[in-house]
Every structure is written in structure tokens, then in C-alpha cells.
Design goal:
Strand content: under 5%
Number of strands: 0
Length: 156
């Protein structure tokens, strides 16, 4: 069994899908008589991840240069590894500050950080994209879809 990009992606999807499924089982039951409840969507997502993961992991492909698994060489890929580490740290910080600071500020900071990680030092552009992302997604979720988002230090 050759280690292809699809197989690696499938195995990662399979493992994450199982973890997501187990975490979904720990969600509380709905207090109201809702036949679907808050677990339905996460169960659908985890089932989809497991199914796609199995399909990709069991897919039979001949090993070619184009589809071989990517093996990182730490000595030559330091920049990429640092970008991955910065992205993980930014995601963890986003998760930690989301409730106390609020969605607008934390998503602005997260998206701006991601722009600096992936786009370089284009300050005005990166900050503009971060601000636009935060405002547009807040408007879509809160205004259009009526989803309650953490307000944090902003009281409007």
C-alpha cells in the first residue's frame, strides 16, 4: 500500500472524523422537544468526514511523482514549518479569547494575523481584509442568520 497524498488526507480525515464524533456524543441533550437537537449537524459532519476519509484511504492509485505523499525536510522547509506553527498558535489564541473579547475583535485579530502569516508585510491590505472579514461574517451570522455570537467587551 503506497503512501499517496489522498491516502494521507483520508487517514487524517478519518481520525479527525472519529474524534469529532466522540466529542459530539458529549454535547448536552436539547432542553426543548426538538427532534433534531444540537447534535444533528455535528453528527452529519463527523459521518461525512469518516466516509470521505475511508474512500480516500482505500482508494487504489498507482504511486506516481504527482500523487506521492509529501514528506517535509525540516532543514529545507523551516519557513513552512514556522508558518504552520504560527497558524496553530493563532488558532489556539483565537479560541481562548473568543468568549471574553467577543467575535468581532477576536475574528479581526485572527484573520489579520493569518493575513500576515500568509501574505507578508502588506499592513494596510492585511488589516483591511481582517476588518472586512470580521464585519461581513458578523453581519451574515448575526444579522442575516440570527446566530448569537459572543459579544465580549462590546455591548451592542
Amino acid at each position: 500500500m503506497a503512501l499517496t497524498k489522498d491516502r494521507v488526507t483520508g487517514l487524517v480525515s478519518l481520525v479527525l472524523g472519529v474524534i469529532y464524533f466522540v466529542a459530539t456524543k458529549n454535547l448536552p441533550e436539547s432542553a426543548v422537544a426538538d427532534p433534531i437537537g444540537p447534535r444533528a449537524f455535528p453528527f452529519i459532519i463527523s459521518a461525512g468526514m469518516v466516509i470521505v476519509g475511508l474512500i480516500l484511504a482505500l482508494k487504489r492509485d498507482a504511486l506516481t511523482e504527482k500523487n506521492r505523499a509529501v514528506i517535509f525536510n525540516l532543514s529545507t522547509e523551516k519557513g513552512l514549518m514556522l508558518d504552520i506553527a504560527y497558524t496553530c498558535v493563532a488558532g489556539i489564541i483565537f479560541g481562548l479569547i473568543l468568549e471574553p473579547v467577543g467575535y468581532l475583535i477576536s475574528s479581526f485579530l485572527f484573520m489579520t494575523a493569518m493575513m500576515f502569516i500568509t501574505n507578508g508585510r502588506r499592513i494596510v491590505y492585511n488589516v483591511s481584509v481582517g476588518l472586512a472579514f470580521a464585519l461581513i461574517t458578523y453581519g451574515l451570522f448575526f444579522g442575516l442568520l440570527d446566530v448569537s455570537l459572543p459579544r465580549g467587551i462590546l455591548t451592542f
